Amino acid sequence: MPRLTFGIPVYNGEKYLPEALRSVQEQDLEDIEIVVSDNGSDDATQEICEEAAAADRRVRYLRYGTNRGGAWNYCNVVDQARSSLFSWQAADDVKLPGFARRCLEALDDAGLRALFACPRTQLIGADGTVFEDLDDVSLGLGAPTAHERVHNLFVSQASHVMYGVVRMSALRATRGLLPMVGDDMVLLTELLCRGPMASVDEQLFHQRRHSEQFSQQGENQVKWHAPDGNVRFAFPQTRLDLELYRAVLIAPIPWTEKARACRSVTTRWVGPRWRGVGSDVQTAMGVSRR
């Protein structure tokens, strides 16, 4: 059994997928598997994946005829994993050499209390050029208490850490990624209520920003998560607010910790975004927004 699974959910990813695949294939850790879940792509994704699987026994290519949405695909690579450690790999991101080894070393050093590990991150553009170093030297996600970790998550808004290496036992104790906008923040809130993150003080992850990403497409974010979803009645911000509270309330932590963490949800997330709830109502009523 492999120790670490890289899960690559992809839909029409021919442009960046070869580099993303190569970056995990070249990790200095032999005991890995790479699960690629193709959500009904109609570009060259299939050919790229079949060629990679034929050349590398660690690559397992799963193709599905229908696009069931990004959330389903992200969950599917977790369901297909056979290892005790897991790492999502977006089809347009790059994990630098040493990513896997250093994250595993950080988890080993921290002991079982740490549920996941992530290195420092840089943002790259469509051409692969680094244009920003994220301010992630001291995120505070390794704080000793749940409410401190949740508070620091909302202050930093460091959603990129979900692409680190997570213990599968911890991931499966959560509800996983939900088919909704902001699913990454909900999942991280659940994880951080249960335990800390171990940090790797090296820039070993390149997260790509480009105009074709779903996160750049407004209300189409809803369709990315669930293609059959009704954008008008999705209430994305409202649902996100509620699920963040629920993430705290279902956590196996004392009620005093839950109360403090919920207070951070209110003051650091829900309060500053109150206009989003109003926008949800306007959308449902069919009122155009300027």
Model description:
By secondary structure, the chain is α/β, with parallel strands linked by helices. It folds into two domains: 209 residues, Spore Coat Polysaccharide Biosynthesis Protein SpsA, Chain A (Alpha-Beta Complex); 66 residues, no CATH class. The protein is built from eleven helices and nine strands. Helix 5 runs antiparallel to helix 7 and helix 7 runs parallel beside helix 9. The longest helix has 16 residues. It comes from Sanguibacter antarcticus. It holds the Pfam family Glycos_transf_2. Keywords: Transferase. This is Glycosyl transferase family 2.
CATH superfamily of the largest domain: Spore Coat Polysaccharide Biosynthesis Protein SpsA, Chain A
Mean pLDDT: 91
Cα separation of the termini: 54 Å
- The number of distinct helices, counting runs of at least 4 residues, comes to 11
**Any guess at the CATH architecture of the largest domain?**
Alpha-Beta Complex
Which percent range fits the helix content?
A: 40-55%
**Strand count, sense and closure of the main sheet?**
9 strands, mixed
User: Tell me, what is the CATH class of the largest domain?
Assistant: Alpha Beta
**What form results from the Cα inertia axes?**
globular
The Rg value, from CA coordinates, equals 19 Å
CATH fold category name of the largest domain: Spore Coat Polysaccharide Biosynthesis Protein SpsA, Chain A
Structural class: alpha/beta
Number of strands: 9
Q: What are the low-pLDDT stretches, counting only 5+ consecutive residues below 50?
A: none
Quaternary arrangement of the chains shown? single chain
Succession of helices and strands:
EHEHEHEEHEEHEHHEHHHH
Total separate domains: 2
InterPro entries: Glyco_trans_2-like (IPR001173), Glycosyltransf_2 (IPR050834), Nucleotide-diphossugar_trans (IPR029044)
Keywords: Transferase
Domain Glycosyltransferase 2-like: 7-112
GO molecular function: transferase activity
